Amino acid sequence: MAFDSTPAVELRGVSKSYDTFQAVKPLDLLVPRGATYGLLGPNGAGKTTTIRMALRILQPDHGEINILGKPLSQEGLDKIGYLPEERGVYKAMRVRKLLTFFAELKGVSAKDSKPRIDQWLERMELTDRADARVKELSKGMQQKIQFIGAILHEPEIVILDEPFSGLDPLNQRVLREIISELKANGRTIIFSTHIIDHAEKLCDHVCIIARGHKVADGTIAHVKKTHGSEFIALRLAAPSPTALGEIRRIAGAAGVRESGPDIEIPLKSGLEPQKVLEQLVAAGIQLRRFEVTEVPLEQIFIERVAAASENRVAPGVFTPGTEAKHV
Amino acid sequence: MSRIKPIIKREFTEAVGTKAFVIGTILGPLLIFGLFGLQFLVMAKGGGGNQRVAIVDASGLGIGQRVETEVMERSGDPSFIARATFDLDVTQATGEMQAATAPLTERIIAKELDGWLWIPADVMSGGSLRYEGMNATNQQVTNELQNVVQGIVQSHRLESQGIDKARMDDALREVPMAVAKTGDKGDVGNPAAAMIIAFAMAFSIYMMVILYGQAIMSSVMEEKRDRIVELIVSSVRAQDLLVGKVIGIGGAGMVQLLIWVAAGALLMTQGALIAGAMGADAGTIDSIMSGDVIPKVPLAVGIIFVLFFGGGFLLFATLFAIIGSIVTEAKEAQQFVFPVLMPFILGLFIAMVAAQNPNSTVAIIGSIVPFTAPMVMPVRAVVGGISWPQVLLSLALLFATAAMVIWLAAKIYRTAIFATGQKPTARELIRWMRAA
To answer: Which among A77, A119, A80 is positioned nearest to A99, based on CA atoms?
Structure first.
């Protein structure tokens, strides 16, 4: 593939309303070619609506959509593979016939798709089910079939809407491996998720959407740099109210966040890790762990989303005491 | 266009591959042949049988004897239906019916006799015959006996007035009338055959839409319910999916219809063979062989039928697809199906009117309004001849309406397929059309 600097997917000022509810507010999105792009946001943030507009399933009210540098067209759509969040297949069809049909929908003839189908069925350990009816397969297998259907035509862009939902850990790993392979082959991968851990492990770019708004985007490093800061992660050998009081005193205005023996101190208000360590040792606090680390993406996500909900711009990093493990 | 192809292919092969289709396709002709053959079998085997009847004649005019003679003569007549054969035993009687028939009733109970017929003394002046027997429900027996006695009594009455029965019959002979249907080119044909074709055309459109329109509706509902549709419309346009579905499933319906028509044609050409195998007599077979059993359809009528059939199916099937897209359950669909079928059923009624009077105002309007034209125009073409300006106007309107409905359907479809909650109100439907 010759190097091409035009983005794989570009949305400019795209918006969509249902009645009075604005599902997507004017949104600019730029997915570079070859990127693994995470579209992050809580449920109802507008991720699926955005994806559907990029796939011509829904017409945007306003804005412009370009696929591989050209306005959205059938040609562009043929270069996209899509796994919708709402998984569905023709249950009465036989696996091979269904996959052939999926390929034909993307302009790949039955003859050309046959070896690819064989190859993928083998890869997914479904060769012996090629002639079974889809309804005879387990839900996990049906999802694999649908995933094969999405990439059978070897698309340049793969859009996966919540691809991990409903998959057991083993199949999640298979999917992660395939995504990595696709990435290594230069494909552009866009996936939406609200499981931030997946995004952080797989993506190089992210965009966080909340309430139809884009609240952060760019490479993960960029997002972290812009919207988060480093912190000190501590683990105490013997947690006690006294030790905690001591740590709070040392942290001062920066505040602390505790979760059992683990304590986090944001690196702000002029705190320096070296000095903090010295003070902790001087105070006689025994440590099991002392580490200067980045703020996790999840933390940025929660804060940005919370800020969007309150309709305000989020301040730097976390506020002391914010409970933030699950979304 | 190329993306409609896989849709058509899938819809067609899936529809043809269902058990319902295979069974329906084979069962249809079997049913036609079966019913056709069965009637002869029933007639041949289920006829009157041998009836042992005692005639007690109190008339004193020898009517009983004459009945016996005449019944025996009649039994040799050819008949469509196998006749009852009679084993008659005539006795003269005087006095009361009760006394004369009591021993006969005993014999009926003992199964030595099937029934008795009492001819009263005053039969000439209006006295009533009486029949009693285990076989009293067999109308072949009672009708035949009544007819024979009536004929004899009537001729007695005429003779007593000095009128010759033979001359009377001659004067009252039926005046026959031959009826022929004048075609466009002055050719003549069997009007019954023309009517058969006309109704077969209207009815086949009706059958197709009812059966396959509903199949399309279910297919759309399935795609919506099973969440398949999103994937499909991410590759092809909603209207392509819609049209592909109508053509694919409609094509399967056409195949079925053609098989049925072929079976029907086979029946018409080979009917005598089947009737013979089922035990029909020579006379019946002759009547099947002769006459214009196979109606001849002019090519122009055939073309008109195919065009209106296609246009009508496209229009109504798309309406069914819209219903499928806006409801989630079959129950909900029913209340939408009725308003769609209303103009369709109206069309069938107008088609019947048109068959009688093809150039009435109702028939002409009905053959031009797109929602009734598919049923009415072919009927008018068969019965009343073809008016090409009207046919072309009607076709243009029909296909323009179908195209508009498809366009509207695609708009509703795009929004409706993602709405899974309550069924929409009329206002919401209009909004969906605007939103898409």
So the answer is: A119
> Confidence class of residue A5 from pLDDT cuts 50, 70 and 90?
confident
Q: What is the pairing mode between strands B84-92 and B130-133?
A: unpaired
Q: Cβ of A77 and B436 within 8 Å? A: no
Burial, A219: exposed, middle or buried (Cβ in 10 Å; 0-12, 13-18, 19+)? middle
Q: Which of B227, B414, B436 lies at the smallest CB-CB distance from A87?
A: B227
Query: For helices B373-384 and B191-208, what crossing angle results, to 10°?
Result: 170
Residues B265 and B294: their CA atoms lie apart, in Å, by: 8
Interface of B with A in 332-391 (CB under 8 A): none
For B239, the closest chain A residue by CA position comes to A57
Q: Note the pLDDT tens digit of each residue in B110-140.
A: 988 999 999 999 988 888 999 999 888 888 7
Task: Enumerate residues 6+ apart whose C-beta is below 8 A from A11.
Answer: A27, A28, A29, A30, A50, A53, A54, A63, A64, A65
CB contact under 8 A, B6 and A89: no
Determine which of B235, B413, B417, B433 to mutate to test the interface with A (most A C-beta atoms within 10 Å).
Answer: B235
Cα separation, B86 vs B148, in Å, equals: 13
pTM: 0.71
Q: How far apart (Å, rounded) are the C-alpha atoms in residues B165 and B151?
A: 10
CB of B139 less than 8 A from some CB of A: no
3-state secondary structure B103-160: HHHHHHHCCCCCEEEEECCCHHHCCCCEEEECCCCCHHHHHHHHHHHHHHHHHHHHHH
The rounded distance, in Å, linking the Cα atoms of A4 and A68 is 9
Residue B82's pLDDT is 54
Burial class (CB in 10 A: 0-12, 13-18, 19+), B160: exposed
Q: In what order do the strands lie in the sheet with A36-40?
A: A80-83, A157-161, A188-193, A36-40, A205-210, A213-219
% pLDDT > 90, chain A? 34
Three-class DSSP category at B362: helix
Q: How distant is the alpha carbon of residue B391 from its chain centre?
A: 27
* Residues in CB range of A193: below 8 A, 6 or more apart: A38, A39, A40, A162, A163, A164, A199
Closest in B13, B231, B236 to A82, CB measured: B231
For B7-29, the pLDDT digits (tens) are 999 999 988 888 888 888 888 77
B430 touching chain A per CB within 8 A: no
Q: Cβ(B47)–Cβ(B83) under 8 Å?
A: yes
pLDDT tens-digit profile of A230-247?
Answer: 788 889 888 888 888 888
Kindly report each contact of residues A256-259 with a partner whose C-beta sits within 8 Å and lies 24 or more positions away, as own/partner: A256/A320, A257/A318, A257/A320, A257/A321, A257/A322, A259/A325
For residue A172 the two structure tokens come to: 């999640």
